């Protein structure tokens, strides 16, 4: 079982809806990530949170709004999405954003993803 | 900048046989990590194996081993004794160990492996 939990697993929403994706990890990791993955493509980084602060925003449209309420939780608020935003949204965590701590081999642990369909 | 190349869009392997998935990379970072992930149709990205750029020995994890040839910048994944449950998309990825880009996990385009009974 994955140690990164994402809810919901599936979400269908209209272009005027507001919804949120949730992610939780209890591994004590200090970095959390949102990735977007289109069909048959590799994941693309959207956001990085480090110690609960937004560290990296890969020029993501403002209709995607991340939030990190505490070190274990990461949300992605969705508003006024477009059909082309339909994708698998993956949350991940790692020991730290800046790799290099002793014993940290740098891997990211991913959740099962939230499959979003925008009508 | 880093680049990962996986030249095999799809591979077939007979059950119980071994298979090698190719991965080459390009980077100017002196220290980095190489990773392989498995993604079944369910969507979860499952971490399989890690190889550090300064590790002297090739990494192994159960039926997975990484054939690391630093001079050739290749990090091929070898799966021994394939099982039906190994059918999935496999991504090679790289992460710099230091510098401003050390948060960045760069993925290849993936190889879809199908195990034939």
3D architecture notes:
- Chain A has 119 residues and is mainly beta.
- Chain A is built from no helices and eleven strands.
- Chain A has strands at 4-7, 10-13, 18-25, 31-37, 44-50, 53-57, 64-70, 73-79, 87-94, 109-110, 114-118.
- In chain A, the strands form two sheets. In chain A, strands 2, 4, 5, 6, 9, 10 and 11 form a seven-stranded mixed sheet that branches. Chain A has a four-stranded antiparallel sheet with strand order 1-3-8-7, with no helix packed on it.
- Chain A starts with a strand and ends with a strand.
- By secondary structure, chain B is mainly beta.
- In chain B, 0% of the residues lie in helices and 51% in strands.
- Chain B has strands spanning 3-5, 10-14, 19-21, 24-26, 32-39, 46-52, 60-61, 64-69, 74-79, 88-96, 106-107, 111-116.
- Chain B starts with a strand and ends with a strand.
- The model of chain B has no long low-confidence stretch (mean pLDDT 95).
- The chains are: A mainly beta (119), B mainly beta (117).
- The A-B interface holds A 2, 31, 40-43, 45, 48, 50, 55-56, 88, 90, 92, 97-100, 105-113, 115 and B 33, 35, 37, 42-47, 50, 52, 91, 95-98, 102-105, 107-110.
Rg calc of chain B: 14 Å
What share of the residues of chain A does DSSP label as strand, in percent?
A: over 45%
What's the β-strand tally of chain B? 12
Number of strands of chain A: 11
The helix-and-strand class of chain A reads: mainly beta
Compute the number of helices of chain B.
0
Percent range for β-strand residues of chain B: over 45%
Distance between the termini of chain A: 31 Å
Strand count, sense and closure of the main sheet of chain B?
A: 6 strands, mixed
What characteristic shape of chain A results from the CA principal axes? Answer: globular
- Give the largest interface: A-B, 28 and 24 residues
Spell out the helices and strands of chain B N to C: EEEEEEEEEEEE
What's the helix-strand series of chain A?
EEEEEEEEEEE
What's the Cα radius of gyration of chain A? 14 Å
- Give the count of helical stretches of chain A: 0
């Amino acid at each position: 079982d994955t140690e990164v939990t994402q809810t919901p697993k599936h979400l269908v929403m209209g272009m005027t809806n507001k919804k949120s994706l949730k992610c939780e990890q209890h591994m004590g990791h200090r970095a959390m990530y949102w990735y977007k993955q289109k069909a048959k493509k590799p994941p693309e980084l959207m956001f990085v949170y480090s110690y609960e602060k937004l560290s990296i925003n890969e020029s993501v449209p403002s209709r995607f709004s991340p939030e990190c309420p505490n070190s274990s939780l990461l949300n992605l608020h969705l508003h006024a999405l477009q059909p082309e935003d339909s994708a698998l949204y993956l949350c991940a965590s790692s020991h730290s954003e800046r790799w290099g701590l002793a014993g940290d081999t740098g891997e990211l642990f991913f959740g099962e993803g939230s499959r979003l369909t925008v009508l | 900048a880093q680049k990962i190349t996986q030249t095999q869009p799809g591979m077939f392997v007979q059950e119980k046989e071994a298979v090698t998935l190719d991965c080459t990379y390009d980077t100017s970072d002196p220290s980095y990590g190489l990773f392989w992930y498995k993604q079944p149709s369910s969507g979860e990205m499952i971490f399989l194996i890690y190889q550090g750029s300064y590790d002297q020995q090739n990494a192994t994890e159960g039926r997975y081993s990484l054939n690391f040839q630093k001079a050739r910048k290749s990090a091929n994944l070898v799966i021994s004794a394939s099982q039906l449950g190994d059918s999935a998309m496999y991504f090679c990825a790289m992460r710099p160990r230091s510098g401003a880009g050390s948060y960045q996990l760069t993925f290849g385009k993936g190889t879809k492996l199908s195990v034939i009974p």
